Amino acid sequence: MAKAGVLGAGSWGTALALLLDKNGHDVTVWSIDQAEVEMLDREREHKSKLPGVKLPQTMKFTNEIQEAITDQDFMVLAVPSPFTRATAKKMAPFVKEGQKIVNVAKGIEESTLMTLSEQIEQEIPQADVAVLSGPSHAEEVGRCLPTTCVVGARTKETAEYLQKMFMNEVFRVYTSPDILGIELGGSLKNVIALAAGIADGLGYGDNTKAALITRGIAEIARLGVKMGGKIESFTGLTGIGDLIVTCASVHSRNRKAGYLIGQGRTMQQAMDEVQMVVEGVYSTKAAVKLAQKYEVQMPIIEQVNAVLFEGKSAAEAVKELMLRDGKTEHSDLPWEA
Ligand SMILES: NC(=O)C1=CN([C@@H]2O[C@H](COP(=O)(O)OP(=O)(O)OC[C@H]3O[C@@H](n4cnc5c(N)ncnc54)[C@H](O)[C@@H]3O)[C@@H](O)[C@H]2O)C=CC1
Ligand SMILES: O=C(CO)COP(=O)(O)O
């Protein structure tokens, strides 16, 4: 059994901390928010972010960041992406050479276009940084519903070590060397899920949802492969798998925010109503910049950007997508054998 520090006590940090506790590990959860730490310690439930999921006495909660780092065998970084760099900076003085940090947040830094693992490696160069991603809503992991994820790491040893730490009869973990592909799939699918939510909010149907998922993964893979990610990650759990669950699930924060926007709320009103991080909002501008930098077409993501940040109506955005020039579905398929 290992000692694990979990940084960030939102819905995902809390659900993963519980999973690790159930696997018999000694778990310490850090939150920046003293009131959240006291509430978790007292109530043994995160009533606003993971209601109905009881947290055992064996889980420890702290406001002191070094308690979740010093002497831990590995750390799980679960703060929303806008706080990843700042949290990594705070962690850095306490992290030992080669200590493992597995990032579970999904985002891209807009100002630098860096992935989260790149930011963490920049702030904590002595750490062994890995990622965990896949179709995995906290609400279902908290209730022990069968779930699959992928650990991406620089070495097979680290990937297999973390696989063992997380895996159990309801949480199956695969390994992969493609950290970049995993992270790009995880962050860009949130933007497409906003679009899927907008379509739901406008009252569109399953045909529209299927189109967004299929053409959405085409956009994500087009950019991701050009950036160096592997096609297998985009056709696997961390790509199409995560995109399907986020576009379809009642638990998705991104889909919910999109739904509210489709119903007429502003982006800010939708984010306030969801009350948990809506990562797609932060990733949209970064995605548009990446599309420009790598010269790839990302029409759905461009329209989400226009709706969120340029005041375009959602209905107008859909019409524009539908009336783009007619195209062939697979541009590299020849007409003759
Ligand atoms: N909730 C889910 O089902 C899943 C979430 N994720 C990803 O995990 C990340 C976290 O998501 P959630 O837990 O859902 O978010 P959340 O909104 O539930 O969590 C927010 C938590 O972050 C921490 N926090 C708030 N302000 C902070 C600050 N300034 N500095 C450091 N920590 C701060 C607090 O502990 C707070 O409770 C996101 O990137 C999300 O995309 C990934 C898979 C599943
Ligand atoms: O990444 C997730 C599920 O795999 C969570 O997505 P939401 O943030 O949209 O809830």
Automatic annotation (TrEMBL):
NADPH binds at S11, W12, K106, A138, R253, V277, E279. One of its GO terms (biological process) is glycerophospholipid metabolic process. Its EC number is 1.1.1.94. Belongs to the NAD-dependent glycerol-3-phosphate dehydrogenase family. This is Glycerol-3-phosphate dehydrogenase [NAD(P)+]. The active site is at K189 (proton acceptor). The keyword Signal does not apply. Sn-glycerol 3-phosphate binds at K106, G134, S136, K189, D242, S252, R253, N254. Keywords: Cytoplasm, Lipid biosynthesis, Lipid metabolism, NAD, NADP, Nucleotide-binding, Oxidoreductase, Phospholipid biosynthesis, Phospholipid metabolism. It is an enzyme of class 1 (oxidoreductase). GO terms for cellular component: cytosol. Substrate binds at K106, R253, N254. It is found in: Cytoplasm. One of its GO terms (molecular function) is NAD binding. It comes from Faecalimonas umbilicata. Residues 178-318 form the Glycerol-3-phosphate dehydrogenase NAD-dependent C-terminal domain. PROSITE patterns: NAD_G3PDH. NCBIfam families: PRK00094.1-2 (NF000940), PRK00094.1-3 (NF000941), PRK00094.1-4 (NF000942). NAD(+) binds at G8, A9, G10, S11, W12, G13, F83, A138, R253. Pathway: Membrane lipid metabolism; glycerophospholipid metabolism.
